Amino acid sequence: MSELQEAGRELLGAFSSWLTGARGLSALTASSYISDLRKFLDFCEGTPRFDSDTLRAFVRGESERGLSPRSVSREISALRALEGWLELSGGSEGSQASRLPMPKAPRRLPGFLGVSEVMSVLESYDTSTAAGMRDRAVVELLYGSGARVSEASAARLEDLDLERCMLRIVSGKGGRDRIVPVAEMSVAVISSWLSVRPSFTRRDPGSPWLFVSRNGRRLDPRDIRRIVAKGLCGASRTLGATPHTFRHSFATHLLDNGADLRAVQEMLGHASLSTTQIYTHLTGDRLREVYRRAHPRGEDEG
């Protein structure tokens, strides 16, 4: 091994130790940084050069060889971290890596289920048992209110207004609390669960949580994911669906049926309308129907 290669290896070793020590990153994260930086060292023939031309040439080459925008962004993050460390240790001056523009990754549309597929999941639970009734109620709330898994887990009995079919959601993402409607059919299922809840959780009947285990413990997000996974296994045509899919389906079905975008934004608890707009991937039938009703020549005048 040449001195140049040895120096590069020692440099990355010291940087990795700093990442896990001073920065507190996991060994796995540090390993990902080092893997990306090895490619940069190879490009620089062993000695990192942080001039603008070299950095831009490296990033351009990575993109041209077919690396995804997400992967290129990760490599730029690694370069910025290494450059910052070198500056702290006096081994580099300037901040050229921090000036590299991050590539724009195409925004992926969220997956969603059709109405019949949602019903297939809901009906897969055995509601002849209290546990099955609770499990269906969990998924009914996810789909009927658009709540996140963490928000469903944090729901308390006092948060649900059965008479008005409303739920107060305590945001699990640092946002403000919100009050959202819940589908009447979902509320009916949740009410059935509440009727058997006292006998289901006899150890702690005073538990304040809406969804509980037999000992009164609040169902955490992992429990809810397990409940949803069980329903997905028992239903057909739901391959690749997740608990969050029901939130996506909630938003998609509302918009497909003419709901106002800002109203859906409020129900989902999105701070930005642009976040909600990703759900406007309307079906072809819906688009044709909107066109038929709105365009002057869309209607068949006979």
Question: Can you tell me about this structure?
Answer:
By secondary structure, this protein is mainly α. It has 2 domains: 3-99, Tyrosine recombinase, N-terminal domain (DNA polymerase, domain 1), CATH 1.10.150.130; 115-290, Intergrase catalytic core (hpI Integrase, Chain A, Orthogonal Bundle), CATH 1.10.443. It is built from 13 helices and 3 strands. The protein has helices at 3-21, 27-43, 52-64, 69-88, 115-122, 130-145, 149-153, 184-200, 221-233, 243-256, 261-268, 273-276, 284-294, and strands at 160-161, 166-169, 178-181. A 3-stranded antiparallel β-sheet has the order 1-2-3. α6 (130-145) crosses α9 (221-233). The longest helix is centred in the N-terminal third of the chain and has 20 residues, at 69-88.
| Distance between the amino and carboxyl termini | 84 Å
- Ranges where pLDDT stays below 50 over 5 or more residues in a row are none
What is the mean pLDDT?
85
Which geometry do the CA atoms define? extended
- Annotation field: number of helices: 13
